[in-house]
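SAMPLE LOG
Freezer: B-3
Tube label: C17
Construct: single chain, 244 aa
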Amino acid sequence: MDASHLAELIELEETYWWHVSKRRLVMDWLRRHAAPPARLVEGGVGSARDLQEFVRAGYEARGFDLMPESVAHACLRGLDVVGHDLEAPWPVDPGAFDVAVLLDVLEHMGRPVRVLENVRAALRPGGVAVITVPAYPALHGDWDRALGHHRRYTRKMLREHACDASLEVEHLVHWNSFSLPAALLVRGGQRLFPRDSPPAEFPRVPRWLNETLIGLADVERAWLSSGPLPFGLSLFAVLRRPPS
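STRUCTURE (predicted):
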């Protein structure tokens, strides 16, 4: 992530439908299955808005990020964040955390299994990792390249990475189904009419559409509480360190 994209995240994090919807999805699951007070670590905090939400909810939380600007911004918010490469062994005691969170992080990693191995080491036996990643490798395009994504995921690929890191897949579903048609149109247009180095920017939407998209995500989240979706632009996973 470059500094300009971090600045955009900070600008949009509070109200933009994508950030709000993902934060609500993650918090819903955490409250039901790993409620505070619990010890939580986030890898790749970005703008640190999600980590701030975890602290407000009552988690004993800390985070890591490789980007100095991200670490500095998080520290200005009073959060416990240090600079660290997630592919290197994490500077924590083994089994120190109940929950680990990686939100749209693994796709940036050259060695994602190594990151998941570090997650496993940081979790207590029976602890869980909450993960989101972009779906459908066929949709890998200008946006992904601009953001430094190594890959988009299939369910099978994410399962294999979890298995290689000795983590059990407890929950793995698609989400963000309602924006998939628009993504297909955009990716198709980019391939028909390529541009040189397009910026990685979230498309701005009017307030009424932003609120509508948040509402659709709320409906989808309620559906996911009772069953999976057949498709969606992203994947949401819960991985567990085996109890023994």
